[in-house]
Specification:
The protein has a single domain, classed as Aspartate Aminotransferase, domain 1, CATH 3.90.1150. Helix content is 36%, strand content 24%. It has helices spanning 2-15, 63-66, 76-79, 95-114; strands spanning 22-26, 30-34, 46-52, 57-61, 82-83, 87-90. A hairpin with a 4-residue loop joins strand 3 and strand 4 (57-61). The model has no long low-confidence stretch (mean pLDDT 94). Helix 1 (2-15) packs parallel to helix 4. It is an alpha+beta fold and 118 residues long.
């Protein structure tokens, strides 16, 4: 099924950060990571998730909600996949947009690391 393939491909974009984050869910339709509890904020925060929905696969990246400047250089094509302020929806694999999303996820992770949320 295309949804499972899209889900698994998007999951790999977050999975490489799993060692530095806290895994909350790793199910066939829901992969969810939080930041670890930090000395700065004394609690964990939602970092990112991939979820199979009824008609699409959602990729959530919470740092872009708090730091919208991370979106300054994204393409109109990727921006067109946004729903709300921190979610991108896909119905199929799009290697070009997934590559761009990989870069955005790394920038988000690096920012959180630099401000000691990770």
């Amino acid at each position: 099924m295309a949804d499972n393939q899209t889900f698994n491909k998007l999951k790999t974009l977050l999975k490489c950060y799993e060692a530095n984050l806290t895994l909350l869910h790793d199910k066939a339709d829901n992969y969810y990571l939080n930041t670890p509890i930090s000395d700065i904020n004394k609690k964990s925060e939602f970092f990112g998730a991939v979820q199979i929905k009824k008609s699409y696969v959602a990729f959530h990246l919470m740092p872009i909600y708090y730091y919208p400047d991370l979106l300054n250089n994204i393409s109109q094509d990727l921006k067109g996949r946004m729903q709300g302020k921190s979610c991108f929806n896909f119905k199929e694999i799009d290697d070009k947009l997934f590559k761009e999303l990989t870069t955005l996820t790394k920038k988000s992770f690096d920012l959180y690391k630099s401000i000691k949320k990770i």
